[in-house]
Amino acid sequence: MRAKISYAVTAAVLVFYFILVGSRGVLLIQTGTVLTVTFGVAVLILPVIGLWFLWKNTQFVRRANALAAELDAEGGLPVDELKRTPGGRIDRDSADEVFAKRKAETEAAPDDWRSWFRLAVAYHDARDTPRARKAMQRAIALHDGKLVEA
Questions:
Q1: Are 23 and 47 in contact (CB under 8 A)?
Q2: What pLDDT sits at residue 150?
Q3: Is there a contact between 46 and 28 (Cβ–Cβ < 8 Å)?
Q4: pLDDT of residue 14
Q5: Residue 89 CB: number of other CB atoms within 10 A?
């Protein structure tokens, strides 16, 4: 729940920022000189790119949460078997062990979105965010039947 609130607050701040920047771009365009119109158009491009990125990221998070809910309903969410340091951080060797299990599971069933979901969680626990995201994208694509071979 804390992550959802954090995400919502961050998204709201970004949208406010995009509106603020966009209004400055419009003001520059309204000035009417070649230079200010050029800068105004350039300034307007940034919020458009930012809104597109925010929208795509929000879609990804919603789809990943939907898969988590479906897997939870099936009783297939990965069990937290990770050892932790006294400070509460995940022990690296423990994360590597769990990752090896999840990787073997995924290699045994490469077309199962559930194994890719669990692999994504293992990547995340091992602090490999880019690979975690790619594995989750693959899980989503397999679940939706839209897998495109890379």
A1: no
A2: 47
A3: no
A4: 94
A5: 11
Q: Is the separation of the CB atoms in 47 and 18 below 8 Å?
A: yes
**Sign of the dihedral defined by the CA atoms of residues 11, 17, 21, 26, in that order:** positive
Q: What tokens does 147 get?
A: 């897998």
| pLDDT tens digits for range 82-132 | 878 788 788 777 888 888 899 999 999 999 999 999 999 999 888 889 999
Q: Return the closest-CA partner of residue 69 out of 60, 61, 77.
A: 77
The residue count for the chain: 150
Q: What angle is formed at CA 119 by the lines to CA 117 and CA 125, rounded to 5 degrees?
A: 110
For residue 27, the model assigns a pLDDT of 95
Q: Which residues of 2-36 are buried (b: 16+ CB within 10 A; e: fewer)?
A: eeeeeeeeeeeeeeeebeeebeebeebbeeeeeeb
Decide if 146 contacts 116 (C-beta within 8 A).
Answer: no
Instruction: Retrieve residue 29's tokens.
Output: 């365009």
CA atoms within 13 A on the CB side of 46: 16
Its pTM stands at 0.78
Contacts of 141 (CB under 8 A, 6+ apart): 147, 148
